[in-house]
Request: fold
Amino acid sequence: MEKEINSLVDYMLFIKALKQKYQVESMTRSFLYRGQATDTPLIPKILRLVPRNGDLLAIEQALLGEFKRANPLLIDPFQVKNDWDYLTLGQHYGLPTRFLDWTDNALAALWFATSSALAEERSGLYAVVWVFIAETGDFLPNTGDQHPFDVSESKLFRPRIIKQRINNQSGVFSVYSTEALKRKQRFEEMADYRAKMIKIKVPEAAVETMVDDLHSLGIDAFSIFPELEGLCAYLQWKFFNN
Reply:
């Protein structure tokens, strides 16, 4: 299903209608959102890159090992406990992983989509927010029972809050199974999930107004990224034209 919206009001009314539709049913559901600057496939970063050489799974193992080895002093303050934590931290700093970011916060996802589209100035393209209406069985019951590289099915999980940014962004991840990685499968095309996903499209003409409206509600770079980079991005928006 696809839905085009042209204002923040349209967006919130559509989300509200979706929630009302599913609240009448007894099954517990989580509404998850992912904002993107353009309408590109839902695949993790490790599948968007071209390996220099070798097998992707071997590279993934080497990448994690090197991330853990290279400078432990940078990682120690986050009190990581296992490889789920290492990959969560790496994901937030741009490490190519088999994780894909989602959020419980519909406004945060819209901000990601529209602010990124505004920064990239890609004429004529849509910004996109994916809505994933997830059921309890779509989440891993306990990440401690297995290694992230060993999950047999692509699932969702909620990471430990080892970094404030995860909390501010209401972060949730999907983790790809090894089989899905090998097949380079799009998340939106997975048989278990495609009927639970809705694509909201924001035309280029509506993007700037939506960003301004979100800022007026306190949804901005500094609230999403509560660090110096977020503050600087917010101040740039405040004092300069895009």
About this structure: The longest strand covers residues 127-135. The chain has a mean pLDDT of 85.
